[in-house]
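Marked as duplicate of an earlier ticket. Keeping the data here for the record.
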Amino acid sequence: MKSPHSKVLQEKLASLIFAKTSLQRVAFIGVLHVFFLSACAVNNYGLTAAKVTHGNGAVVYETLAPGLHIRTTSEDPGASFGYSKRTCILEKTTHSPAPGWYYLKTPDKSGTCHATDLSTIGVELRLADSDLSLTIGGRFTTKMGYAAQSDNKDMYLFFDTTNPQKTKLRINQPRRPQ
């Protein structure tokens, strides 16, 4: 059952979003702009949050960033302005970060992403060799089973964006010929 305070808060928020006068709409848009313009992150430092979830042989690393987010890593170079959510699936190791939420300074990823799920609402500039692009609006990209061309491995991956704790990752080294 919802508390009376949450109902009042929902009604106030709805009245701002669906404002009847132009002054209310301008004020609401102004508050959103101040929030998003003041938010800034570079890689894993700044106004960003990361949720680390452990699955079966996998670590799911979700990074959330409102406002301007500049990324200088080789696996995901670029910048976004708006709201960005980036999910990376890594092989679980002894150096994997502990499960939980991290704020302002998120832990470094230990290893290479075997799959990514990238979402941006706003403006995004991607600077990767394989994906040089500019998007205005929304962009949602999932790359499953990412491996370098030189890799000689078999991989099993199961990933459900709504249930990251059920992620399964198994990497098998090939058998040596006899």
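See parent ticket for discussion. Helices lie at 4-17, 22-38.
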